[in-house]
Design brief:
With 526 residues, this protein is α/β, with parallel strands linked by helices. Among the domains are: 3-206, P-loop containing nucleotide triphosphate hydrolases (Rossmann fold, 3-Layer(aba) Sandwich), CATH 3.40.50.300; 217-361, Rossmann fold (3-Layer(aba) Sandwich). Helices cover 30% and strands 12% of the residues. A seven-stranded parallel β-sheet has the order 3-4-2-5-6-1-7, sandwiched between helices. Strands 8-13-12-9-11-10 form a six-stranded parallel β-sheet, with helices on both faces. Bound molecules: adenosine monophosphate.
């Protein structure tokens, strides 16, 4: 099938051709004609399937008729993360270049006045993360009763991140008569129920079985004592031909620590997690996409939808708590028919998580050995660390981790800290062998040097989660993942006419109280 047969206009077809795409992907083939007919769509599709263009292309055509009024967007696209929102905006720029459409991107971490000016001009397409959209709405800066098309993208991710109440509030303010396009990579019952409420007689479009791993990804599993994960990772990075890679950690603090360690070992690495400021996140991502950063250490904020061309490797430094996240993480490589590699480092206590992943993907991940490193055996269980006695019965390794959310909000009592291992030199040269298996990885070999003596351990950042039963992911990365004061300022900027100060940075005393300033007033606001 060709794009021409889908009913798209000449300017849109031209933009698609300019981009070099000749054949629509299955989701585009199925969804575009339905969207053009004005029907609601319930799309079950993962990122990487061409899903974004499946709604962007027909929306551009629908929007080519009519004009936007100030502060009254004509269409609204909700995305769970800033990065995904920015990617959708890029799609509108690419495919809408022969159309005159106004677009606004409302995401956290970016100045309100710029966003307000864009809204004031009148926008055809509003792309937003739920939190920031509600902030504008509550400030009266936006009216949503002219929205004709609503897109809810990555609905299951919204659910994981705790955004569904925000999405429900937003949908309640929209006109009942509208077209709704609802996309989700998976359709658990909660999502199906939500879809039933938001959609009217939708056409269902499913393009790939939910949560299946692409067969262009060569997978490998390295089971080592937890203390050996860093050495194993460094050995893999050295022995594999890594063009560019993401290393996923379950916790933001571990992202920062591992980033430091990799840099210390001469790896060209960057870090990406939800506690970073938006400009820093954007800059890091741009550098990674441009090839200026080779290895990106990231939390699950990068697991979904990030579209980096030709990524050669994905490393799971931690086994993800949710088996679906495994599929999303490794799906950053092996895209567009190219071969990619994914290596997962598992400590014995992560055996339960591996079991769940292998059940989901319906295959056993081939085991790989890193010579010189002790190969451990996976243990049954739920992925929680044993309280005492990790390798060699060393005490003090317990922390509430696995089973907890992949984000960093404390959810329960803190457990004992782990010691950081920055001082440890990697055993520099290792030989990575591959166990036999259908998806065998080519042998990569280097010599080994003796392991340097270990210095005493420093304290490692505490894990911040207590275990949770359901497989959670990074919760509310858009808002909750930011430092609390940043979030506050986002939600109530009008009450903060002055620039924020750091805590305890002094400043003028409150006026009008003479010397009798109560202590709570003398403190700077947080
Ligand atoms: P998405 O699922 O929207 O994240 O898209 C994944 C990747 O596929 C992006 O890099 C798109 O630019 C690319 N893509 C989208 N449509 C097509 C197409 N028809 N042919 C080839 N690549 C495409």
């Amino acid at each position: 099938m060709s794009f021409e047969s889908l009913g798209l206009s000449a300017p849109v077809l031209q933009a698609v051709a300019d981009k070099g795409y000749t054949t629509p992907t299955p989701i585009q083939e199925k969804a575009i004609p339905i969207v053009l007919m004005g029907r609601d769509v319930l799309g079950c599709a993962q990122t990487g399937t061409g899903k974004t263009a499946s709604f962007v292309l027909p929306m551009i055509d629908i929007l080519s008729q009519g004009r936007a009024k100030a502060r009254m967007p004509r269409t609204l696209i909700l995305e769970p993360t800033r990065e995904l929102a920015a990617q959708v905006a890029e799609n509108f720029e690419t495919y809408g270049k022969h159309n005159k459409l106004n677009m606004a991107l409302l995401i956290g971490g970016v100045s309100f006045p710029d966003q307000e000016r864009a809204l004031e001009r009148g926008v055809d397409v509003l792309i937003a993360t739920p939190g920031r959209l509600l902030d504008h709405f509550e400030r009266g800066g936006i009216l949503l009763n002219d929205v004709k098309i609503l897109v809810i993208d990555e609905a299951d991710r919204m659910l994981d991140m705790g955004f569904i109440p925000d999405v429900e509030r937003i949908v309640a303010t929209l006109p009942a008569i509208r077209q709704t396009l609802f996309f989700s990579a998976t359709m658990p019952p909660e999502i199906k129920r939500l879809a039933d409420r938001f959609l009217s007689n939708p056409k269902e479009v499913t393009v790939s079985p939910p949560a299946s791993a692409s067969n262009t990804i060569v997978q490998g599993l390295i089971v080592v004592p937890e203390d050996d994960k860093r050495d194993a990772l460094l050995a893999l990075i050295k022995s594999q031909e890594v063009k560019n890679a993401i290393v996923f950690c379950n916790r933001k603090r571990d992202v920062a620590t591992l980033h430091t360690v990799l840099k210390k070992h001469g790896v060209n690495a960057g870090a990406l997690h939800g506690d970073m400021s938006q400009p820093a996140r954007t800059e890091t991502l741009e550098k990674f996409k441009a090839g200026d950063i080779q290895i990106l250490v990231a939390s699950d904020v990068a697991a979904r939808g990030l579209d980096v061309q030709d990524m050669s490797h994905v490393f799971n430094y931690d086994v993800p708590f949710s088996p679906e996240d495994y599929v999303h993480r490794i799906g950053r490589t092996g895209r567009a028919g190219k071969t990619g590699h994914s290596f997962t480092l598992a400590a014995p206590f992560e055996g339960g998580l591996i079991e769940a992943i292998e059940k989901l993907i319906g295959t056993t991940i081939p085991r790989i050995e890193v010579p010189g490193l002790e190969t451990a055996t996976l243990e049954a269980g739920d992925g929680r660390r044993r309280g005492r006695g990790g390798r060699g019965g060393r005490p003090g390794r317990s922390s509430g981790g696995a089973g907890a959310g992949a984000g960093d909000k404390p959810r329960g009592p803190r457990r004992e800290p782990r010691a950081p291992r920055e001082h440890r030199e990697p055993r520099p040269e290792a030989h990575v062998e591959v166990s036999a298996g259908p998806q065998a990885v080519a042998e990569a070999s280097v010599a080994r040097e003796p392991r340097p003596e270990r210095a005493p351990r420093e304290r490692r950042p505490e894990r911040e989660h207590a275990p949770r039963e359901h497989a959670p992911r990074e919760p509310r990365a858009e808002r909750s993942a930011q430092p609390p004061r940043e979030r506050q300022s986002e939600r109530r900027p009008e009450r903060r006419p002055e620039p924020r100060r750091d805590r305890d940075d002094g400043g003028p005393a409150p006026k009008g109280l003479g010397d009798h300033v109560p202590a709570f007033l003398a403190r700077q606001p947080r």
